[in-house]
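Example record

One chain of 222 residues, shown exactly as stored in the release files.
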Amino acid sequence: MAENRWTSELHWRRAGQQTRSERTQAALMDAAEELLMEKGAEATSIADIARRAGFSVGSVYHHFRDKRALLLALFNRMTESYAALTRQASDPAMWEGARIRDLFRGYLEVTLSLSRDHGAAKAAVSAAVADQPELAVHYAEIQGETRRALLGLVLARRDEIGHAAPEAAAGFAIDQLAAMLRARLDPVQKVSALRDMDDAAFVDEALQMVSDYLRLAPAGAG
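Predicted structure tokens for this chain:
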């Protein structure tokens, strides 16, 4: 997809590492994430992670009790990175001059990009820590924050919405976009009409759907 002027400055940020120990932990988690993307959690061993990161197996166990503890730390890092990205993208100043279509396009493109870059690793880690439901609850809370932030940005431009109930309609449109993203990205779902098109076509189709539903003012109007 072409570069989006509104989201080109958004990045999957990680906190700067200060100490040698923190740098080592980050390198081990980076290696684990790469391996999870390549072959999944079951096939990834502590020895694999150590080898990929360039450390000894003993060094891994010095920083993490076992593989599960490393995966838990990786899940927390992913979650906090997503939360930081949400906060960054929620800044109204970033979207000065943007229209509702721009907001939705940014939401779709950033979500697709994150899934392509980190989705397999996140799925593998989530499965490995599935017996800790509080983690899923925390992640769901962050997703809720994302929805509320996007809704707030959209409703700040409610004069573009021609629907008779703009607030309810905007919330419904965001939920429909989220459902379309899940249908496209979740390998368990078999919605071929959404999965078979390329990302650019998917974004255009989704934008057309919500634009028609919300009766958005044409570009250049207002």
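Notes: The radius of gyration is 20 Å.
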